[in-house]
Prior knowledge:
By secondary structure, this protein is of the alpha/beta class. It has helices at 16-28, 39-46, 61-64, 68-78, 93-102, 114-126, 155-168, 184-194, 212-220, 237-240, 256-268, 294-299, 305-311, 328-340, 352-360, 366-380, 392-398, 425-439, 444-451, 455-465; strands at 8-12, 32-36, 56-60, 83-88, 106-109, 174-177, 202-206, 221-222, 234-235, 245-249, 270-271, 280-281, 285-290, 314-317, 349-350, 385-386.
Amino acid sequence: MATDDARLLMLVDDEPAQARVISGLAGREGWRVLVMESCEAALEALCSADGFEVHTVLIDNRVAGTNACDFIRAVKSERPEIAVLMLTASSSPLLAVEAMRAGANDYLIKPVAPERLLVALDSTARFTAARDELQPLSEKLSPILEFDAMVGTDTHFRTALAKAATAARGHGHVLIEGESGTGKQMLMQTIQHSSSRAKAPMRHVHCAGLPQTTLESLLFGHEKGAIAGAFDRQEGALAACDTGTVLLAGIDALPIEIQDRLAEVLDSGIVRPTGAAHGFRIDVRILAASRRPLEMLVEDGRFSAALQEKLSATRIVMPPLRERAGDIPALTRYFLSGIGELEGMSRHSIADSGLSLLEAYDWPGNVGQLQTVLFRACVHERRESLTAHSFPHLAEMLGDADRGESKTRGLGVLLYEDDGNIRPLEEIEADVIRLAIGHYRGKMTEVARRLGIGRSTLYRKLSELGIDNAA
């Protein structure tokens, strides 16, 4: 959590209601918030005594309009150490690219989920602007996937997918647990998309950061006049999704009173809106995601045992990326392929030096953070191949230690020179043969068979390439 002395957020927003919500969310995380209603006032304030305490600027693109990128450049010109976040209603990848090239650290799409906003703020608190490539941008590059299109061979990851695929064919509630960035949201959406309820009503509710009365109305609904400000009747997500699915992100943040009420609804199948005299029967499926193991929260008295039991009919745990480091090469290639298809982006490959750097990092933000780092590298890299030089902030954090070749692949074969150019085929072929000789412990018949060539051809190549068969 940020401290009052160190973290001051400048919010550039002329919409009072939105400013109050963002200020409240940031305040609960320890931020002080300075609200500016125009870009001109914001730039002037940054040059004042109070402005020099500003750590992060959050700008609503609607305030700046077509001059948003100019505003970002001006902020970075005056105060390059400040982190800048852009809030916008546009989902255009091209706008994301333009904003980041102008110097934005992150790009949030409205309506932004409270958890997404807090993760972005937390990222700026944990890393200085000199390390600003570690901000999450996953929502711009995360389409709904089929199960067989998900990348990863790690045993725990494949087990999670297998359980999810089985759950998609059923009708029971599902609980997905895992750290931020591990893919819980993606998996919930894929289960829903692959289920028999795919064409039925669906709502996505983010539980973190919302007031209790707001959450109650979102989930259960309310009658006119039942609560302060209830000028009309509101149908809750549970009723609206009768025969369908409700996706609950951040369910570990639900207040205990709402947990108990939700457990009762799931047990009885009857939902009663706040202020209503009678309830009505519903058939709804819950897909829930939690950053913390609910079983531990139950033991600590912070989560309803009844609700945890209802949701855990199928419990799936998404492993953190540090525990599936062997998937980093495949994930990297997958993300680079997707990034290259975005408007305004070029296609990139990755050299061994760059991949080794990615594998050396422990990725506290998990797959979402890897995706973001690659996105930022592609935004700024003009060469076709990403090398270690394409990730200067990672290199700064990890130091200059010689990481050698890609540690998790164990290939021992470098495909690129340090400058990003492909190595000569003759050199690559020699390395492959040396690798095969070492792997099969000098058994030349086996080496030739595995390489798909005859023994005479193998010995001819050894002579031509100058390879000692004892290599």
